[in-house]
């Protein structure tokens, strides 16, 4: 996968169409916030959401009352209720609960940056991130979204999708962002690479997302052996011993798959997951 990023989901072009419904306007207001704009004034909310200022003011008061926004001295910021609601997303919540202890072990053993990601439309969405001494702290984030074509996680999710050919066509048609000069955007080359990824159940990238770093990603499965997520590890390109690293990564993904399958079959999403270890 990779770490990286510039969260392409927050492009202001997404706010050019003003929604008609109250719910749509409220969603546009909440979507106006991003990493660089965690606090916004009323006028900023209006400009970034495309919602007229009077409507923003009225809806902002309701969102504050509901805990979805928080009023601060110089404007508004996302409220705690948004975080609380996000923790109730079924599959994502269970994956994070099961995956986090494994990521802790993985980072301790490798000192790299570990990510848990899922496919969202034509992008890679990051559910969890943990970093060690080799971590790239400033680039990736939980809830961030990156192109499928230039991260190891994205390429793995694209390759393992049951509709990979159609999905690749859709991704290429969107002209995905090129994160570095090494990012692969050629349709034919990508298709060949995806064939290799499916064969080995392993995706890699080298400086396609961030200069100086390389990443490896392996699949996480559900009880029906369908790929539901990608587990990735990012280390500096100078790191040696890729094969042991990949073996450790596969052990970690197998642990997440086993525990996720166990809890999902029991429907026990709310149960506290015991710590998993890579040493089993």
From TrEMBL:
Keywords of the record: DNA-binding, Transcription, Transcription regulation
InterPro entries tied to this protein: GAF-like_dom_sf, HTH_MetabolicPath_Reg, Tscrpt_reg_IclR_C, Tscrpt_reg_IclR_N, WH-like_DNA-bd_sf, WH_DNA-bd_sf
GO molecular function: DNA binding; DNA-binding transcription factor activity
A biological process from GO: negative regulation of DNA-templated transcription
The keyword Transcription appears for this protein: yes
Classification via PANTHER family: HELIX-TURN-HELIX TRANSCRIPTIONAL REGULATOR, ICLR FAMILY, HTH-TYPE TRANSCRIPTIONAL REPRESSOR ALLR
Annotated protein name in UniProt: IclR family transcriptional regulator
